[in-house]
């Protein structure tokens, strides 16, 4: 009798899991992009790993995954832990506008690169891109987690394969393929809105770069983690500098800085510790009083030219 009950429970669980899988695959046993995802991970053995299921859930149900992080994980982060594991394995690098544009308009293939200086973490430090990489635009999960998010909401870019095919096949109502020109246009529009470009790396996304997010300080989970003392987003390698002869003390830079790094007290003053080198203040200053200066103490920029050998 006990054996029958156990077998019945196991059978029900298997049916439930099969139902969830079929739902995840949108009525198919295996979509082409899922097969490509498995091949990238090393074949059938990869399916039986935690990394596969973690990556699958993250890619298929990003809104729920990131929404849970914004509502639960980040607010409960321990500021006393300066290097939490989840930040080491899921993190972003701030990109000034021109760097972000170069990353998606490359003319040469970028092979695997170990980026210890650029991305000083144990995992997810690689870039694999083809010249003129494929790009998909996706509804921002961070903005979806808020009742009144910044607009527009479709501002997250998945870059390269197998990420593009996976997000479009599994989320056709919230993702679309776009051209390089459209991607550049969106980056410029988001820059004008005062939003930050961040290149994201995640260990279960095949241990490499996979997305450029255009982040607002009020919705972004990565920026929120910084406010909670978790170093999930690292600086671009630049810092803002103010030319006092041009500064009119209008306060525009203070209003738009996503990291609270500028205060205007008679003149604009930059808090070096807080400045992430995003370039938002530079783009919003009406008097061109702010420029971005290279600062080795802020890390190494993600320079595509060096990755391609140019």
Overview of the molecule:
- This protein is 38% helix and 17% strand.
- The chain has 310 residues and is an alpha+beta fold.
- The protein has two domains: 8-234 and 299-308, no CATH class; 238-294, Alpha-Beta Plaits, CATH 3.30.70.
- The longest helix is centred in the N-terminal third of the chain and has 23 residues, at 2-24.
Summarize this structure briefly.
The chain has 310 residues and is an alpha+beta fold. The protein contains 14 helices and eleven strands.
**Helix percentage:** 25-40%
Strand order of the largest sheet: 4-2-3-6-5-1-7
Helix and strand sequence: HHHHHHEHEHEHEHEEHEEHEEHEH
Mean pLDDT reading: 90
The overall strand count is 11
C-alpha termini separation: 71 Å
What fraction strand?
Answer: 15-25%
Give the overall shape: globular
Radius of gyration: 21 Å
H/I helix tally: 14
How would a crystallographer describe the biggest sheet? 7 strands, mixed
């Amino acid at each position: 009798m006990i054996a029958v009950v156990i077998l019945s429970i196991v059978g029900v669980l298997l049916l439930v899991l099969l139902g969830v899988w079929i739902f995840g695959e949108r009525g198919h046993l295996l979509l082409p992009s899922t097969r490509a995802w498995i091949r990238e991970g090393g074949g059938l053995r990869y399916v039986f790993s935690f990394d596969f299921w973690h990556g699958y859930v993250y890619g298929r149900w990003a809104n729920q995954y990131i929404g849970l992080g914004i509502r639960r994980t980040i607010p409960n982060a321990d500021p006393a832990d300066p290097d939490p594991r989840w930040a080491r394995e899921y993190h972003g690098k701030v990109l000034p506008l021109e760097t972000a544009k170069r990353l998606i308009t490359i003319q040469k293939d970028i092979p695997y690169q170990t980026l210890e200086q650029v991305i000083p973490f144990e995992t997810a430090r690689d870039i694999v891109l083809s010249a003129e990489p494929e790009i998909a635009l996706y509804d921002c999960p961070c903005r979806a987690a808020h009742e009144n998010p910044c607009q527009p909401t479709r501002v997250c870019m998945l870059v390269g394969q197998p990420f593009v095919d996976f997000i479009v096949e599994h989320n056709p109502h919230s993702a679309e393929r776009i051209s390089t020109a459209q991607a550049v246009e969106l980056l410029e529009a988001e820059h004008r809105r005062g939003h930050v470009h961040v290149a994201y790396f995640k260990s279960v996304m095949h241990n490499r770069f996979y997305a450029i997010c255009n982040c607002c300080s009020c919705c972004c989970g990565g920026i929120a983690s910084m406010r909670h003392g978790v170093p999930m987003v690292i600086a671009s390698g630049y810092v803002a500098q103010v030319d006092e002869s041009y500064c009119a003390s209008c306060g525009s830079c203070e209003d738009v800085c996503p990291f609270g790094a500028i205060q205007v007290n008679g003149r604009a003053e930059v808090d070096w510790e807080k400045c992430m080198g995003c370039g938002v203040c530079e783009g919003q200053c009406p008097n061109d009083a702010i420029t971005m200066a290279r600062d080795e103490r802020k890390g190494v920029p993600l320079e595509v030219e060096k990755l391609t050998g140019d």
